[in-house]
Every structure is written in structure tokens, then in C-alpha cells.
TrEMBL record, chain A:
Name under which the protein is recorded: Beta-ketoacyl-[acyl-carrier-protein] synthase family protein
Keywords: Acyltransferase, Transferase
Class in the EC hierarchy, top level: transferase
Family: Belongs to the thiolase-like superfamily. Beta-ketoacyl-ACP synthases family.
Taxonomy, superkingdom: Bacteria
DNA-binding among keywords: no
Pfam family, one: Ketoacyl-synt_C
Coiled coil (UniProt feature): none
InterPro entries in the cross-refs: Beta-ketoacyl_synthase, Ketoacyl_synth_AS, Ketoacyl_synth_C, Ketoacyl_synth_N, PKS_Beta-ketoAc_synthase_dom, Thiolase-like
Species: Streptomyces iconiensis
EC number(s) on file: 2.3.1.-
SMART domains attached to this UniProt entry: PKS_KS
Ketosynthase family 3 (KS3) domain segment(s): 3-406
Automatic annotation (TrEMBL), chain B:
Gene3D superfamilies named among the record's database cross-references: ACP-like (1.10.1200.10)
Alphabetical list of InterPro entries matching this protein: ACP-like_sf (IPR036736), PP-bd_ACP (IPR009081)
Residues forming coiled coils: none
Chain ranges of the Carrier domain: 2-77
Record protein name field: Acyl carrier protein
Species for this entry: Streptomyces iconiensis
Domain of life: Bacteria
Length: 407, 83
């Protein structure tokens, strides 16, 4: 029996190209990298990032929420409001017990943690904010969305590092299939543009050190790639069983048709050279969507721009696809927003199917000679595509593959 | 008309992000949308600014009552300091 897909009826996005789906889609099509020097990271070994411009949480939410919530939750709420409005849903009127919220977040939030830890270190314990914990814990993106939208069904975070957003969407698909909800609000949110994350990823050797030219730093599948670029953002999709979406006359922007999840069980942070765990997740997602490799017209790659990830991902693609279809990585433009990335890239994949237009990969000027991939560059490519893959892989060996099809 | 404690006003606007025009002496913290978690936050911000821990504030305290309570704390600690 074919497992049913989920209709994507609403999309909300917050990316380094801007707040909203329109600004984000225009930004990714422009192929213009967003990385630049980040004053908040001044003095650290890697002091550049991709920043969401004009987030203005005071105006978009309230000044109270802007002060109470860390940046990842602010972005999650803004994206959730956009997605629900885009879906034509009214959270005042819906049956909240049947609405689930699943948000992928890869780390705890370190936005304002440094200042609180400094108070601890200098014996100023009574000055530590009582909100230090509630604003930092990763489930607060889903908790605050549930609160704001009166969504009283299952609500939780998925945390599979850089795959968290894709894991959230896959898990939401499973909740819908299981009948645990009628509507799932799912995605990811994260900001690693803070001093603790920056120094942590830097010490791990995961970041590009191209400090002289930040805009050229994130170069997926390029021979000159040397690491990922710190970023932030959020994306939220509204998912419904197709009959539920049809029943209320909703527009379906694309279908989330399949999900594959595996773990490498190989190494804490490195993928196996042959990308076998990723390949297994790809095959699992194809089977789940009742499709074969030949049906896939486009790959939205994980493509972090780290030497190891891109090599292993290429191996996985070449193992599953006799000739991998046109492939793009959104991280050349937007850097790596960790737990948000998988959701943002799934949103881009849905828009790619809707517009039949493949966005370009920024900074891909010379493909690594070890690869044989058809990477989309320049100003993108008009291309007929019925089904597309969105890959996400994370520290811990987590692999999450989503398959989207035209609505 | 009772004035609202100036430091309390700053805690509510700068510290908690409430709009200044909503702060009336007869408004309760609850009216302003501040729950028990927000009151904990307010207490830490107030103590940081003044060195005094505000006690006895509840969600149903009006800003006028809070002002009177904070003034009595202040007076108590002044007396203590003087003995």
C-alpha cells in the first residue's frame, strides 16, 4: 500500500535574504551570497556570518516578546504566522487539539548565555535572568508557536543537529499518517550567529576561514571549499492530509511525499567516506514515496561546503542515481543555519516545484574534480521537475531525506 | 493621582518591553499581561537597579500598590542602615 503524502498548504520563511517567502525566494534566485563581517563576533577567529536583516521582532511581534524570546524563537514565530496566513487558516477558529507543532532546533540557544555565565563566574548569581533557561531550551520554538496559535495537539522539538528541520518535517508527516493530528505546523529555527556557537564551531574546524572575502566563503561542491558559514533563520510549513486540504478548498503548493531517516553509527561528527548512511536514507525516502531514482528531477543538496560533507554527499548521490539530476545547494547564498537549514531548504524545494525553476548555487566556480555532479549555477535554470529530493545530514550521523512532488 | 515608582517604570518599559502609555497607577500586573514568570524577571531587574529585592508583588498588585510596597521596603532598609 502506498503511504499517503502531506499537502503543503502554507509556507513561512525568515532567511538572510529577508523576512518572508517573497524576499527569501528572490534572494535565493539572485545567487547573491549574504555572508559579511559580523560585528557581534568581533575579535573571534571567524567573525563573519549570514545575518537575517531587519528582523525587527519589536514591530513584527511585540516589544515584550522581543525581550523575552531568543532570536531563534522570534524567527520561528514570525515564520509560523506567515505560514498559517498563507494556508488561509484561522488559529482563532480551528480545533486546536488537532493541530500539532514540530520544530527542529539543533543546539540550545546561546544568544544571551555568555552574559549570564559571566555573572555566574563573577558571583553575581542574583543578577542572572530567570528567563535564562526558558528562552534557551530548544523546544521553546515549538512551545511558543503552540502558545501563540492555540495549537494544543502534540508539540515538541526534534534535534538531529544540522538535519533537525528535515527531521521535524518527516516526523510531522508520520504524525499525520498516524492520525495524531489533522494539521501539522512544522519546520526549524536556529541562530548560530553568537559568540559561543562561533567559537565552538571554529575550534571544531568546521567553519570556513576565508575571512578576507566572506561573500566567497560558502562554496558548496567547489574545489576551493574550506568549511561552512554561520547563519540563522527559520522556516515553517503547514502540512495537512490531502483530503483535509481539499475539504477546505486550500491551495496545495507541493506535496511532502516521502521521508527517509537513518544514522551512520560511524563517528560523532564525520560521515563515512562513501556516504552509505545518506544513500540508505535516500533509498528509504524513495521507497516511502513509491518513486524510483529515475523519477527525481532535482536535488536540493545538504551541500554545507565542508570538505568531508560534500564529498560524502556526492558519493551517496552517485550510489543512488545512475546520473544525479541537476543539483543545487542553498548554503552558498545563506550559509548554514543548522536546525533551520533542513526546513528552509524544504521550503525552497516546494517553491522550486511550484515555479519549475531551480535556484543557483552561489560561489560554485570550479567543481571538485573528484565529483561528477550537474550543479546549477548562474541565475538558476528553468527545468521540468515532478519530484525533488531535499537532503539533510547532521552531527551524530543523522541523515534525513525528504521527497517533495508537485501539488 | 499617585505617581508610579520611577525605577519600576523603567524596569517595565526598558526591562520587560511594555509600552509606557499603558502604565497607569490602577493597572494590575495582570492587566499589563505580566504573569508569574514575568514578575520573577521584574524582581531580578529591579534588584539589579536598586540593590533591593522587591517582595510581596503579585499579578493582582496595581502599580500604585507596588509603588507603595517598594517605598516601604526602601524605608525599612533605610531604617536598618541607620541603626
Amino acid at each position: 500500500m502506498t503511504a499517503e503524502g502531506a499537502a503543503i498548504t502554507g509556507i513561512g520563511m525568515v532567511t538572510p535574504s529577508g523576512v518572508g517567502v517573497q524576499a527569501s525566494w528572490a534572494g535565493i534566485l539572485s545567487g547573491k551570497p549574504t555572508a559579511e563581517v559580523d560585528d557581534e563576533l568581533a575579535g573571534l577567529p571567524v567573525a563573519f556570518s549570514c545575518r537575517v536583516p531587519d528582523l525587527d521582532a519589536c514591530a513584527r511581534l511585540t516589544s515584550r516578546l522581543a525581550l523575552r524570546l531568543d532570536r531563534f524563537t522570534q524567527m520561528a514565530l514570525i515564520a509560523a504566522h506567515e505560514a498559517v496566513a498563507d494556508a488561509g487558516l484561522n488559529s482563532e477558529a480551528w480545533h486546536g487539539e488537532r493541530v500539532a507543532v514540530v520544530m527542529g532546533v539543533g543546539t540550545a540557544s546561546f544568544d544571551r548565555l555568555e552574559a549570564e555565565v559571566m555573572k555566574l563566574a563573577s558571583d553575581q548569581v542574583r543578577k542572572i535572568s530567570p528567563l535564562m533557561i526558558p528562552r534557551s531550551i530548544p523546544n521553546m520554538a515549538s512551545g511558543e508557536i503552540s502558545l501563540a496559535l492555540k495549537a494544543r495537539g502534540p508539540s515538541f522539538a526534534t534535534s538531529t543537529a544540522c538535519a533537525s528541520g528535515a527531521t521535524a518535517l518527516g516526523t510531522a508527516l508520520l504524525l499525520l499518517r498516524a492520525g495524531a493530528c489533522d494539521i501539522a505546523i512544522a519546520g526549524g529555527a536556529e541562530s548560530v550567529r553568537n559568540r559561543i556557537s562561533a567559537v565552538g564551531f571554529s575550534q571544531l574546524g568546521a567553519l570556513s576561514t576565508r575571512s578576507g572575502s566572506p561573500a566567497a566563503a560558502s562554496r558548496p561542491f567547489d574545489t576551493g571549499r574550506d568549511g561552512f558559514v554561520l547563519s540563522e533563520g527559520a522556516a515553517v510549513l503547514v502540512l495537512e492530509r490531502p483530503a483535509h486540504a481539499r475539504g477546505r478548498g486550500a491551495r496545495t503548493r507541493a506535496i511532502l511525499s516521502g521521508y527517509g531517516a537513518t544514522c551512520d553509527a560511524h563517528h560523532p561528527t564525520a560521515p563515512p567516506v562513501d556516504g552509505r548512511g545518506a544513500a540508505a536514507a535516500l533509498r528509504m525516502a524513495l521507497a516511502d514515496a513509491s518513486l524510483t531514482a529515475d523519477d527525481i528531477g532535482h536535488i536540493n543538496a545538504h551541500g554545507t561546503s565542508t570538505p568531508l560533507n560534500d564529498a560524502a554527499e556526492c558519493q551517496a548521490l552517485q550510489a543512488v542515481f545512475p546520473q544525479p539530476p541537476p543539483t543545487t545547494s542553498n548554503k552558498g547564498v545563506w550559509g548554514h543555519s543548522i536546525g533551520a537549514a533542513g526546513a528552509i531548504e524544504a521550503a525552497v524545494t516546494a517553491l522550486t516545484l511550484e515555479h519549475q525553476l531551480l535556484p543557483p548555487t552561489a560561489n560554485h566556480t570550479q567543481q571538485d574534480p573528484a565529483f561528477d555532479l550537474d550543479i546549477v549555477t548562474g541565475s538558476g535554470r528553468h527545468h521540468q521537475v515532478r519530484a525533488a529530493v531535499s537532503n539533510s545530514f547532521g552531527f551524530g550521523g543523522h541523515n534525513a531525506v525528504l521527497i517533495l512532488t508537485v501539488g | 493621582m499617585t505617581d508610579i515608582n520611577e525605577v519600576l517604570t523603567r524596569c517595565l518599559t526598558d526591562g520587560l518591553g511594555l509600552p509606557a502609555d499603558g502604565l497607569h497607577p490602577e493597572a494590575t500586573f495582570d492587566d499589563l499581561g505580566l504573569d508569574s514568570l514575568a514578575l520573577l524577571e521584574l524582581a531580578v531587574i529591579y534588584e539589579d537597579k536598586t540593590g533591593h529585592e522587591p517582595t510581596g508583588l503579585t499579578a493582582l498588585s496595581t502599580l500604585a500598590q507596588a509603588t507603595a510596597l517598594l517605598a516601604s521596603h526602601q524605608a525599612d532598609s533605610t531604617t536598618e542602615a541607620g541603626t
